[in-house]
Design goal:
By secondary structure, the protein is mainly α. The protein has a domain at about 50-225: UbiA prenyltransferase (Tetracycline Repressor, domain 2, Orthogonal Bundle). Helix content is about 75%, strand content about 0%. The chain contains 16 helices and no strands. It has helices spanning about 5-30, 35-70, 85-90, 95-120, 125, 135-140, 145-165, 170-185, 195-215, 225-250, 255-260, 265-290, 290-295, 305-320, 330-335, 335-355. The termini are far apart. The relative contact order is 0.08.
Length: about 375
């Protein structure tokens, strides 16, 4: 049988269990009597809430990062063509003119980013098979289509609303550019040769946008020569054909699956068209620099800047044929130091030519 000591142990254990149950029951009725349990529940709730907040913040940050990459900020260098009007009109040292043109370039940057987002949405399936474009946020699924579409619509609406209220002529150029790029994204990009002509027209519209913005804001003396427009057009064609050449080489037999127009391009054809566009751009700039209009309105010594243009074009050809680049003009512009230095020296040379040797109406 049980000893007295065993009986005491049993009674003590039963009492402890009873006290524990009684304490739990009492804690339900009066939580303040068991503060430890109550604080533990609060801490667990707070930790769970904090985890949800952190998860939401991480999700938002990932979407913002993907959206910023989809805006292709590095490609905004193309919009430097907006400054061509005030540069050749000798307003490059005017702070107000520079500020207005910078805002106009920013507007074009945001609108072009809207076009990039639209293009990524339209090409997301084809881009997923491209060796480089498959890493784009929309193609890889890092950025959802609804968010990309909303951002594209918001940017386009913002830029057009502001520009139409401030500079109507400039807004007309922006609107035409947007419509042209929408047609390009949803069909015309697959038309051989026509796709490159549309890309080149986009660069011309950038230059015209800078001129129209200057005129809308009171700089009526700002204009652009038809020779300079032709030079811009052929130079842009050269860059676009170089990009198509890079795509044909990179994709090989899969080129037609990525873009229908690539099926009709060959390396030989692209090399020939690049040669024609290269010669036309250099000749166009040379004729512009020595034309009577340029001598009278811009500078009598602008022809001194021809070597910079020639070297820049030939340097780009060297990077294409020897180094195997050409797929991304903006990347080459920022990564190749000789090319970047050449462009900077050209800008300085143009500014000095206009300042030291201004146009002479008597010429």
């Amino acid at each position: 049988m049980y000893s007295n000591q065993d009986m005491k142990i049993s009674l003590t254990m039963m009492g402890g269990i009873y006290q524990t149950k009684q304490g739990m029951a009492q804690s339900r009725k009066c939580p303040e009597l068991v503060p430890g349990l109550k604080m533990g529940h609060r801490n667990l709730t707070r930790i769970s809430f904090d985890k949800r907040v952190v998860s939401v913040i991480i999700h938002v940050m990932k979407n913002l990062s993907a959206l910023l990459r989809s805006l292709r900020i590095r490609s905004w260098t193309k919009n430097l063509f907006v400054f061509a009007g005030i540069l050749f009109a000798d307003h490059w040292s005017n702070p107000r003119a520079l500020g207005i043109t910078a805002l106009g370039a920013l507007g074009f940057c945001l609108l072009s980013s809207s076009v990039y987002l639209t293009n990524d949405i339209a090409d997301r399936k084809r881009d997923s098979t491209h060796p480089e474009k498959r890493n784009r946020p929309v193609a890889s699924g890092q950025l959802s289509v609804p968010i990309a579409a909303f951002a594209a619509l918001f940017l386009a609406a913002l830029v057009l609303c502001v520009s139409w209220s401030v500079a109507p002529t400039y807004a007309m150029v922006l609107s035409f550019y947007l419509v042209l790029q929408i047609f390009y994204s949803f069909g015309l990009k697959h038309a051989v040769i026509l796709d490159v002509l549309i890309i080149a027209s986009g660069f011309v519209l950038r230059a015209l946008a800078g001129v129209t913005l200057a005129m809308d804001t009171g700089y009526t003396d700002v204009s652009i020569s038809h020779w300079l427009i032709l030079c811009t057009f052929f130079l842009a064609m050269f860059l676009a054909f170089a990009k198509r050449r890079s795509e044909v080489l990179a994709l090989g037999e899969k080129a037609s699956g990525h873009r229908k127009s690539l099926e009709d391009y060959s390396i030989t054809l692209l090399d020939e068209m690049m040669g024609i566009a290269t010669a036309a751009s250099i000749i166009g700039y040379s004729i512009y620099s020595i034309s009577e209009r340029t001598m009278q309105l811009v500078s009598t010594k602008l022809w001194l800047t021809i070597p910079f243009v020639t070297y820049g074009v030939f340097r780009y050809l060297y990077l294409i044929h020897v180094k195997g680049h050409g797929g991304s003009p903006d990347r080459l512009l920022l990564s190749d130091k000789p090319l970047l230095l050449c462009i900077l020296l050209w800008v300085v040379a143009v500014a000095l030519s206009i300042t030291l040797f201004p146009g002479n109406p008597a010429v």
